[in-house]
Amino acid sequence: MRLTRALAASAAIVMTAVTAVGCSSDASAGSPTCPNGKIAFGIEPFEDPTKLKPAYQVLADALEEKLDCPVELNVLEDYSAEVLAMQNGKLDLGQFGPLGYVFASERAGAEPLASFGLADGKLSAYTAGIWVPKDSPIQSVKDLKGKDLALGSVGSTSGDVLPRYALKQEGIEDADLKINYAGGHPEAMLALTNGTVDAAQINSQTLATAKSEGTFDESKFRQIWKSEEIPNDPITVRGDAPDEFKKAVEDALLNLETKDVEKVGAFLDVTPPGPLIKVTKETYKPLFDLAETMNLSEEDV
Questions:
Q1: Is the separation of the CB atoms in 107 and 87 below 8 Å?
Q2: Least crowded by CB within 10 Å, which of 40, 91, 170, 280?
Q3: Rounded to an integer, what is the distance from CA 80 to the centroid of its chain?
Q4: What's the superkingdom here (predicted)?
Q5: Burial call 2-37: b when 16+ CB within 10 Å, e when fewer
């Protein structure tokens, strides 16, 4: 339904926003680390793209040096555009939200390689949350019935599915309240701070960024629900890429220095930051289980 329509609408965007992989005449073209002359790396705009791109460019430049192959960074229109681009062979690598990866793995064959580690070598994680004004009569998820709730964007792990799962656990269906998709995590927070909704999803990553930038005064709001920890976003490779290329990219990612990834990690609340660490499909099994529990399919997200 919604994703199907979004995929169709995004097709034109993807074809113009992502350069075809095989059009470079770079001397390293044809090598295991650079089979098509360049590497197309896509990300979703989970924060303001003008802020994300400089941070990801540091990571992309370091990866380019490791692989001796140009890395072309693409901030896609949305999740569906990124999935479509990888499915059509226009992306070699893609970073997806955890639940987005579930569907990217099924539709585009995305395989997880690495995610963002902490300084102690453990995988970083984040939480979803629902917030209300401090003086709101809303005390729990049950009290959201009949209220306005701002969510981030359709299909987002912390910005859509997990908050709706919390509602479902309390017997509240989507039709029992007014759900407003704000268009992203910062936009959902803005709807709350502007007073246009009764409650909003704010995940720990967005909260940390907003507090550091001074755009959210936590003393004026309360968190009424918090999810269990969610493993951070995987960087994935398309499933039909050559095995030698997959291995080379994985090795390169796992050998990047902390300074190469910490600017991106700052947006993901990776504190204190460490290097990227290896992840597998099993790492994200709780998200596959969530999709099954919620009876989710691509049409639902």
A1: yes
A2: 280
A3: 12
A4: Bacteria
A5: ebeebbeebeebbeebbeebeebeeebbebbbbbbb
* pLDDT tens-digit series, residues 214-241: 999 999 999 999 999 999 999 999 999 9
The CA distance from 2 to 187, in Å, is: 20
Residue (of 126, 153, 125, 123) closest to 276 by Cα position: 123
Give the tens place of pLDDT for each residue, 160-218: 999 999 999 999 999 999 999 999 899 999 999 999 999 999 999 999 999 999 999 99
Q: Give me the residues paired with residue 132 across strands.
A: 222
What domains lie within the chain, and their CATH numbers?
A: 39-123+232-294 (3.40.190.10), 128-227 (3.40.190.10)
How confident is the model over 27-56, as pLDDT tens digits? 466 688 998 899 999 998 888 889 999 999
CB 18 within 8 A of CB 40: yes
d(CA 129, CA 159): 9
What is the Rg, in whole angstroms, of the alpha carbon atoms belonging to the chain? 19
Please answer whether residues 129 and 202 qualify as being in contact, where contact means their C-beta atoms are separated by less than 8 angstroms: yes
CB atoms within 10 A of CB 131: 25
**Residue 189 one-letter amino acid:** M
